[in-house]
Amino acid sequence: MATLLLSSPDFDQTVHDFGTVGLKDGPQTCTFTYTNETEEDVLILAVVSSCGCTEVDWTRTKLAPGQSGTVTATYSNEDGPFPFDKTLTVYLSNQKKPVILHLKGVVKRNAAKQ
Questions:
Q1: DSSP assignment, residue 112?
Q2: Interatomic CA distance for residues 64 and 111, integer angstroms
Q3: DSSP secondary structure string, 30-80?
Q4: In this structure, what DSSP letter does residue 11 have?
Q5: pTM value?
Q6: Mean pLDDT for the chain overall
Q7: 27-53: b or e for each residue (b if 16 or more CB lie within 10 Å)?
Q8: What's the pLDDT tens digit per position in 30-75?
Q9: Residue 6 C-beta-side C-alpha neighbours within 13 Å
Q10: Is residue 113 a contact partner of residue 107, using CB atoms and an 8 Å limit?
């Protein structure tokens, strides 16, 4: 079962825990939602994954105040079994420091997703 662990003022969560997944469960996908809580337009400039096992896509249009955009990550789940903690570094036009998002979980050889 996926759980929401932490939140930030702008993202609905900063850590997504996939829980226990099996190697045969295939790619695992989650979405982080960013809400522009400023008085200016904001752009998600780039999202960088910590490894090639995670593909990312994000909203590439300017977000007016109050609008939301998303960062969607798909973890390939092809290696293992092992625990994983992958990071996504998100660069926003209104922040000097990037936001770090995490994808966590444990891959088991024959486990059914819990």
A1: P
A2: 43
A3: EEEEEE--SSS-B-EEEEEESSTTEEEEE--S-B-TT-EEEEEEEE---S-
A4: B
A5: 0.86
A6: 88
A7: ebebebebbbebeeebbbeebebeeeb
A8: 999 999 999 999 999 999 999 899 999 999 999 999 999 999 999 9
A9: 9
A10: no
What is the enclosing helix (H) or strand (E) of 21? strand 15-22
R_g of the chain computed on alpha carbons = 15
Pairing label, strands 99-108, 15-22: parallel
Higher pLDDT, residue 78 or 12 = 12
Distance CA 21, CA 110 (A): 9
Task: Please tell me the distance from the alpha carbon of residue 13 to that of residue 45, in angstroms, as a whole number.
Answer: 19
The amino acid at residue 35 is T
Structure tokens at 111: 């486990």
